[in-house]
Design goal:
This protein is of the alpha+beta class and 176 residues long. Helices cover 26% and strands 49% of the residues. The strands form two sheets. Strands 1-8-3-6 form a four-stranded antiparallel beta sheet. Strands 2-7-4-5 form a four-stranded antiparallel beta sheet. Keywords: Signal.
Amino acid sequence: MKTLFKNIAILTILLATITACDEIEDLADVTKTVELTKQFKVELEGGDNAVETGSFNISILTPAVEPYADKLKNVAIEKITFEVLNYTGDALAEYKAQFTADGTPFINESFFGFEADANDTIFEVNDTSALNTVATKLLNNDSVTVSFNAESTNLEVAASFTIDVKFYIKVTANPL
């Protein structure tokens, strides 16, 4: 009976030690908030079905995160926004903006260019499934290629504007 109680006591101490080690490791987590901004110019000729396409890369390996590149535990995208800046063109023209990150769509938004710029409208991605998918791709690959498509089907005159896209990302790493 004494042996049984000794074994139970030893097992309890071992389990408490293992649990404490996990908690200590979690205490060493480092979380960095990263804001990635990309701007691109859209220039559309007047007429039906005016389209502009392009792509750019975003990477979470900023100077603040790069020291922990091999120790990343989690990437969470808190939000993605875009804003129309410096609009010139038809005040009544409607546009559609579509964005994908490595094939995952995350923005599909229609807007009036003049109105969006004049009102400083900030469009925000609300699709948490898309945000989580893009975050997983960033965790696994450190970067993604963002493709965009801006189009208008009723453009009377040429138009140009800048689209400002911002990614608000939280990166967690453990240097241990």
